[in-house]
Amino acid sequence: MDHAVKLALGGVMAVLVLAEVLWAWRTKRHAYEPQEVLCNVVIALFNALLKPATLAWSLLVFQWMEPLRLVVLPHSVAVFLVTFLVTDFAYYWYHRWSHEWPALWAMHHVHHSSPWMNLTTAARLSWIAKVVSPLYFVPLTLIGLPAEFVALSLGLGLLYQFPLHTQAIGTLGTFEGKVLNTPSAHRVHHGSNAEYLDRNYGAVFIVWDVLFGTYKAETTAVRYGVTTGFIGHNPLRVQFEPLLRFLLRRGERAKRPVDVRGRKAERVAH
Length: 270
Prior knowledge:
Blueprint: H1 3-27, H2 34-65, H3 77-100, H4 102-112, H5 129-136, H6 138-142, H7 147-161, H8 183-189, H9 207-212, H10 235-253, H11 260-269
Helix pairs in contact: 2-5, 3-4, 3-7, 4-10
């Protein structure tokens, strides 16, 4: 991406954050906690430092798979639009499995662990997942979708989700639960209320949730965070404690018979 474009996007995001801070102050909403914002910023800065390495890793993975492609599709507008739609569909399942599979949840937990919901939460992403996620999207390149289009589609999906992490925009009436994801739908996704768990996984399109039965409208006040408790404001703990807990639990299970019902309850508790 061109440096000027990056600066422009960063500027727009900063202005939106400042506008949301002003909104929270004027409406007396406790949407921002200074220590938590600092934690989110540190996580985002480290992700930025890792970006050259993770981008190189993604391109390397896709290039390894290129000789195995079933077809080679042209770089055209039509192919990009198809790629964007297919990538968003694939993201829905990756996101859903990141809540349902303990190993993936141990990484995705980072994004959900904050009891505060604001635009800086969008940058609260797992460092480890940056290495894992490209492997999941490899099949898209195997069926012929250009790797550059897949990467661009994922980037645009993340960009679209940035303004969804806000309490400043209410429900959008009949627009909700139709085609596109909204701030209201995404607030539900971040809720730890029993009725909101494992809901609204879509990135750009909420229609996947509607089709696969995971859509839930925002009907009551959302309680943000996870059901297993608040970890704290330390970025290292936020990133690695859930993964460490998962690995320790795996070690304990290896020493005793697996209780299937217990594992199910553990997943639902997330």
